[in-house]
Write a structure and sequence with these properties.
By secondary structure, the protein is of the alpha/beta class. The protein folds into 5 domains: 101 residues, no CATH class; 114 residues, no CATH class; 241 residues, Rossmann fold (3-Layer(aba) Sandwich), CATH 3.40.50; 214 residues, Rossmann fold (3-Layer(aba) Sandwich), CATH 3.40.50; 134 residues, Rossmann fold (3-Layer(aba) Sandwich), CATH 3.40.50. The chain has 35 helices and 30 strands. Strands 5-12-13-11-10-6-9-8 form an 8-stranded mixed beta sheet. The chain has a 7-stranded mixed beta sheet with strand order 19-16-20-21-23-22-28, with helices on both faces. The longest helix has 24 residues. This is 2-oxoglutarate dehydrogenase, mitochondrial. It comes from Aplysia californica (California sea hare). Its EC number is 1.2.4.2. Belongs to the alpha-ketoglutarate dehydrogenase family. Its cofactor is thiamine diphosphate.
């Protein structure tokens, strides 16, 4: 019997019309006879036709087969005969036994002329096959119609890079011809092109399908594996007359096109030689975005977060966000200096935020555009993180109030991997923003690269198919088609909470920028473009021709906007400076008020707070089955708490828990952060016998505490770090942390580090308190599991190696205020504790990069007493020698400065060589900003002729050596010392570490010898 079931389940998938018709004839026979039912299911009625007609015949036949097995009389005798013949081994085509002559009934879908239906003519095999052919034709248009849509305004390229018509869309492929065009076919339930009509002539079916799927809109949606959603899209595009616009709506489209077009023309007249990356060729983007905002606002969204590249940004700022035009125009005046901090950025990279009334919905909305560097798509997940954070703080759990919108370029959407990472986050519980509307401004060209050389997929948008996002390709020179698609996209996002893509197939009227010459590489395209009227001209002519507007009304609308631009131009001339702070996407209203930026904050806490957090963190919940090994971990933690000690995991828990108690939201994300890569954290406890039952102890510390979010991310660095940066810039009163699985892997997120974290404040006055935890340490684990590439972060630090700041009580806080970020390599849990709390306690925000340990996580020596974390204690930028050498500094012959875990190894080596009195070892815990004052203080403690050495476990061309050496030399000069800093470490290497254990130990021995050597260098 299983053989029969498999035969049935697979035979319906066969492309052969003969076999399909065998199934259909059997079905028709049972329908004609009325069938019978058992157990509430009917096999042979018209209702049973629905699953067959909807393409789910497998489930239908399987149910009927199982019913037949239980009771052969429960199905029509034709099916009974079919199953009996199949059981004997007959193939589907032979298993069918013809029932008595069938008469066509109104309930039976038939491919017959009307008179045949009336006369009840027999349904022959050809009729059935033609009916199936028509169903296949309809489905083919739904699947492939976009491939022949008229999408290119220039009429040069097929948007899918293939000029051939798919054979599925050719009538001859179905053994149908011109002679069949007047035949009437009953429409299946899988289409809405008939409206209220159940039957249509074949030529009318094809005409309607072409109007829907092959004109200005190409709909890609049949790959979506959800019948409800595909059916919804079909209804939105196939229903006759659904795409109608009133005269008032058309006038609004024209007015918005005027603003979009005349803004670019105004800038071109005033600054003809300036780069502005204008929107010419895709002016419809402005009415498109405004339509999405209008529609979404009507459905409850009141906050829109936008990310986009440089093309069209000024136009979006002016006409979508309604940034005052004079603020934009004054950016063109290079003589104006900044009125506040920061290097600033080119005008087409800037962000902003604005709250205004939406005049269509009469609702207040907020629009934020996130500052973004060029075309790299790096902003994509930053926008997602910012949106997610706003949803969190507003309690918008389903994204009904906050919506992200991303604008992309075609070449970048296809070419930049971050796009996939962004899409991949769209449905992850801890990262979803419940749907993003993606708009691709499809120039059909990269900088100078033809799309046929720039992508392997038919469309630039194909990557979106992986998340079942519908893709609406649309000719950007058909404004009404664009506006309709935007309305559908907004409804899709509101209804389903899923991503959707709008592909605006357009062109670029000028080169990559306004002073570029595109004819060098695309002569034919730009000869065509030179003759193209603007979309505004074409649309206005259409409206005038159809008496929607008059020529005078059109000209008056243009004059009105021209006047607005000229008035703004006059106001801009009166500006005396540009204010970078006007371009913030999240202004943090009230955060800086009443705060003293020169106040060094206290970060210690009461001991009872530590004890309480430690007890909860180390006590398994009642009636919760945890792993046996984890019981031992918790018991060990409880023992440490009772001894007033903390290892790294406890120090971290103390930091997070004490901030949660103070109402500070803490978010930690990254790969496997819930447990921790090195099985040290265990912030999420899993029930050992009940799936998905978990508990998070740090969320059960206090009844009124803030929320702690700890979430494993996808295996992404670039995308997830960008997400967390976006999260961090939304609210300064939250500790947002991203942890790499190994610090080495941060290199794949380098773009976010370079563009947003290290330089964000300088370029965009964009402060962020984001924390990067990067496991770092040479334990012989090879070149991809040792180095966080500390040198890269230090190279991006902005402190001057040759400048010794003025000494005084404000030395530390002044350094913290002026640096672009903090880069640290801690050796104690207490210092980690204070650094985490300092991120929130400071009156400003700076990113923090931490080289976190691996072996120190469990090293007994790397523990801290409660005494180092209670009130009155604080972060130590430098930890001086605390042993015998400090008690008799005059006897010290060498001072070794180091950072990180190498300290403990040097102490052990010094002990083994009995050099405790001759060598002092000082730990620099904070490398950036460099504690020159404390280094000087330490050197003053020891004799002037003491040997000074920097020791590191990294290779000489890596690690902190190149950063530390010139700064220590500056300290020497400040002290009037003529000496050099010696080096103890590995030799230069192209690889960050060796993969050979023996070589690792040999290199370590050389390091120890150099660090412990008391003879001065001859170099």
């Amino acid at each position: 019997m299983h053989r029969i079931k498999n035969l049935l389940l697979h035979s319906h998938k066969c492309r052969s019309f003969h076999e399909l018709s065998a199934f259909y004839r059997s079905y028709a026979a049972s329908s004609a006879a009325g069938g019978s039912s058992r157990g509430g299911k009917s096999y042979g009625t018209q209702a049973a036709a629905e699953p067959f007609m909807n393409g789910s015949s497998s489930a239908y036949i399987e149910d009927m087969f199982e019913a037949w097995q239980r009771d052969p009389t429960s199905v029509h005798k034709s099916w009974d005969s079919f199953f009996r013949q199949s059981a004997r081994g007959a193939p589907p085509g032979q298993a069918y036994v013809a029932p008595p002559t069938l008469r066509a009934m109104s309930s039976v879908p038939a491919a017959l002329p009307a008179h045949a239906v009336e006369q009840g003519a027999p349904v022959d095999e050809k009729t059935i096959e033609d009916h199936l052919s028509v169903q296949s034709i309809i489905r083919s248009y739904q699947i492939r119609g976009h491939n022949v849509s008229q999408l290119d305004p220039l009429g040069i390229l097929a948007a899918d890079l293939d000029s051939e018509t798919p054979p599925e869309l050719i009538l001859d492929s179905y053994n149908l011809g011109d002679g069949d065009l007047d035949r009437v076919f009953r429409l299946p339930a899988t289409t809405y092109i008939g409206g209220n009509e159940a039957v249509l002539p074949l030529k009318e079916i094809i005409r309607r399908l072409q109007n829907v799927y092959c004109r200005s809109i190409g709909v890609e949606f049949m790959f979506i594996n959800n019948l409800q959603r595909t059916d919804w899209i079909r209804r939105k595009f196939e229903t006759p007359g659904i795409m109608q616009f009133s005269a008032e709506e058309r006038r609004m489209i024209m007015a918005r096109l005027i603003r979009s077009t005349r803004f670019e023309e105004f800038l071109a007249r005033k600054w003809s030689s300036e780069k502005r990356f204008g929107l010419e060729g895709c002016e419809v983007l402005i009415p498109a975005m405004k339509t999405i905002i209008d529609s979404s606002s009507a459905m409850g969204v009141d906050s829109f977060i936008i990310g986009m590249p440089h093309r069209g940004r000024l136009n979006v700022l002016a006409n979508v966000c309604r940034k005052p035009l004079e603020k934009i125009i004054c950016q063109f005046d290079s003589k104006l200096e900044a009125a506040d901090e920061g290097s600033g950025d080119v005008k087409y990279h800037l962000g902003m935020t604005n709250e205004r009334l939406n005049r269509v919905t009469n609702k207040n909305i907020k629009i934020a555009v996130v500052a973004n560097p060029s075309h790299l798509e790096a902003v994509d997940t930053v926008v997602q993180g910012k949106a997610k954070a706003e949803m969190f703080y507003r309690g918008d759990t389903d994204g009904k109030k906050v919506m992200p919108m991303l604008i992309h370029g075609d070449a970048a959407f296809a070419g930049q991997g971050i796009v996939y990472e962004c899409l991949h986050l769209s449905d992850l519980p801890a990262f979803t923003t419940h749907g993003t509307i993606h708009i691709v401004v499809n120039n059909q060209i990269g900088f100078t690269t033809d799309p046929r050389m720039a992508r392997s997929s038919p469309y630039c948008t194909d990557v979106a198919r992986v998340v079942n996002a519908p893709i609406f390709h649309v000719n950007a020179d058909d404004p009404e088609a664009v506006i309709y698609v935007c309305k559908v996209a907004a409804e899709w996002r509101a209804l389903f909470g899923k991503d959707v893509v709008i592909d605006l197939v357009s062109y670029r009227r000028f080169g990559h920028n306004e002073i570029d010459e595109p004819m060098f590489t695309q002569p034919l395209m730009y000869k065509k473009i030179a003759k193209m009227p603007t979309v505004l001209v074409k649309y206005a002519e259409n409206l005038i021709h159809n008496a929607v507007v008059t020529q005078q009304e059109y000209e008056e609308e243009m004059s009105k906007y021209d006047k607005i631009c000229e008035e703004a131009y006059s106001l801009a001339k009166k500006e005396t400076a540009v204010s970078n702070i006007d371009w913030l996407d999240s202004p943090w209203s009230g955060f800086f008020e009443g705060r003293d930026p020169m106040m060094l904050p206290a970060t210690g806490v009461q001991e009872e707070t530590l004890a309480h957090i430690g007890k909860v963190f180390s006590t398994p919940p009642e009636d919760f089955v945890i792993h046996g090994g984890l019981k031992r971990v918790l018991k060990s933690r409880n023992d440490m708490v009772s001894k007033r000690m903390a290892d790294w995991a406890l120090g971290e828990a103390f930091a997070f828990g004490s901030l949660l108690k103070e109402g500070v939201h803490v978010r930690l994300s990254g790969q496997d952060v819930e447990r921790g890569t090195f099985s040290h954290r265990h912030h999420v406890l899993h029930h050992q016998t009940i799936d998905k039952k978990v508990t998070i102890p740090l969320n059960n510390l206090y009844p009124d505490q803030a929320n702690y979010t700890v979430c494993n991310s996808s295996l992404s660095e670039y995308g997830v770090l960008g997400f967390e940066v976006g999260y961090s810039i939304t609210n300064p009163n939250a500790l947002v942390i991203w942890e790499a699985q190994f610090g080495d892997f941060a290199n794949t997120a380098q773009c976010i580090i370079d563009q947003f974290i290290s330089s964000g404040q300088a370029k965009w006055v964009r402060q962020s308190g984001i924390v990067l935890l990067l496991p770092h340490g040479f334990e012989g684990m090879g070149p991809e599991h040792s180095s966080a590439r500390l040198e890269r972060f230090l190279q991006l630090s902005n402190d001057d190696p040759d400048y010794f700041p003025p000494e005084g009580p404000n030395f530390e806080i002044q350094q913290l205020h002026e640096t672009n970020w903090f880069v640290c390599n801690f050796t104690t849990p207490a210092n980690f504790f204070h650094a985490m709390r300092r991120q929130i306690a400071l009156s400003f925000r700076k990113p923090l990069v931490v080289c976190t340990p691996k072996s120190l996580l469990r090293l007994p020596e790397a523990r801290s007493s409660f005494d180092d974390m209670v009130e009155g204690t604080q972060f130590q930028r430098l930890i001086p020698e605390q042993g015998v050498a400090a008690q008799n500094p005059a006897g010290v012959k060498k001072v070794v400065f180091c950072s990180g875990k190498i300290y403990y190894e040097l102490v052990k080596e010094r002990e083994s060589r009995s050099l405790n009195e001759e060598i002092a070892i000082c730990r620099i815990e904070q490398l950036t900003p460099f504690p020159m004052d404390l280094v000087k203080e330490q050197l003053q403690t020891y004799p002037k002729n003491v040997i000074v050495c920097w020791a590191q476990e990294e290779h000489k061309n890596s690690g902190a050596w190149f950063y530390v050496e010139p700064r220590v030399q500056t300290v020497f000069r400040r002290m009037g010392l003529n000496k050099r800093l010696e080096y103890a470490g590995r030799f230069p290497s192209a690889a960050s570490a060796t993969g050979n254990k023996q070589m690792h130990l040999m290199e370590l021995g050389q390091l120890y010898n150099a660090a412990m050597d008391l003879s001065p260098s001859l170099a």
